[in-house]
Amino acid sequence: MIRLVVYLLVLALIAFGVAWLADRPGSIAIDWQGWQIETSILVAASALLALLAATILVWTLLRLIFRSPDLIAFSWRARRRNRGWAAVTRGLVAVGSGDALGARRAANDAERLLGHEPLARLLAAQAAQLAGDRDGAEAAFRAMTETPSTRLLGLRGLHIEARRRGDAAAALLSAEEAARHEPGLAWAADAVIEARCLNGDFAGALATLEREAAHGGLERAAHRRRRAVLLAAQAQALELSDPSTAREKAVEATRLAPTLVPAAEVAGRLLGAAGDARKAAKIIEAAYAATPHPDLADAFLHLRPGDSSRERLKRIRTLTARMPAHPESAMVLARAALDAQDFDVARTSLAPLLGEPTQRACLLMAELEAAEHGDVGKAREWTARAVRAARDPAWVADGIVAERWAPVSPVTGKLDAFEWKLPPGVATTPMLENEAERVKAAIAAAIEARPAAEVEVASERTPEPPVVDLTPEEPAPSLAPEAEVKEPAKAEAAPAARVSPGPSPVVAMPHLPDDPGPEPFPDEPAGRTRPPFAV
Asked: Which of 266, 322, 359, 495 is most solvent-facing, going by the fewest CB within 10 Å?
């Protein structure tokens, strides 16, 4: 639109000039070297314009003749580049479609036609990766690091190749160099943070995180969350060696992420040990309201170490009031009531869960039956029912079930990977093993408390449930195999209603390792699977 307006203005000026000359006639006379030229003003102006046009035309032709070699060379180079970019396009399509031979040919053409173009080098590296040529891929990425424009791309490729071959030191070296050149580069900062967390260097990980955030590599919410995770991990590491520093780190983590369970647990425990029970309770209650967790309840129970079990039961009601309808609140309250020997409260708390009880709820009921009435039979019944009950949540990261929370995944090294959720395809969790130990102790105490003269003769032998043998071809069951139930041999029928005391009943519990470690995927090699608990 603007060009049209300018064009019309120029035409209007020319028309105005011609009309102005036509309205003012005159003549021009030239006498030079015997030549006499006399013409009108309008004709002289027209001749001058024609002379200028001819001069411009001649100059353009001469310039074109002198520049023709350069123009021919430029056209040849443009044609060569077009062929090179076409080869790059063809190669990228071949890489995407899995055509290793086509990708290699296109990479060779692109390198020949384009030389050291970044995309040509990238195509060569990807073609080598597709063909399984790790050495060729590393050579291509290493060549990229020699050029400033492709240095970060080369370092990224070297980092990936080092991780693929399991060379953690080389991967960390590439990531650190990339982070030095570009502190806001997300992949480099994340790799350095994850490696330092795996080595226990949480202070170094925090420093890298702050540099990344200062250079705009993180949003504010993500920065706060990651800093809270690293502070919580640092507080856990310093809890025994430097409690005061650990307390400061944990409290700061709860300010950044009030719902982060590990941070609230450590902060509550350390604040309680320091005598600040009110602040500790406030932190734990805020986290529990978002994520009801047994570790939070345990820290809340022991805010004041000298309290009696009755006082702890009274205090735990305050915590469970935050989430009264949550199953975890019922089990936490039942646990505290069992410790306080308030069996009515424990039974009332567990009653809403008995329609579809989880494994922990079944074990709590087994402990309740053994502790309240000394009813070993019902305790064993609940224990057997726990074998096929629904599972309870656990700390899970990348399919691995862990006993404790960790800042990074043990599989991928990803920061803040652990989640409190139902574990996939495992029969039991470390927390469930601990509950089984409590049931074992309760049943053993109930058996010891029964006088030997009161042992009744059972009318029929209780059948032993079979042990399920899982094969690798079977899909892993969602629950643990049923355990063997060992009973003492039944006495022969006798006229007397009572018999002399024999050997005490056997309570067969699983051998619990000192460190259960993370549970594997269900497709891990397995022979006969050990039951999580057997009474």
From this structure: 495
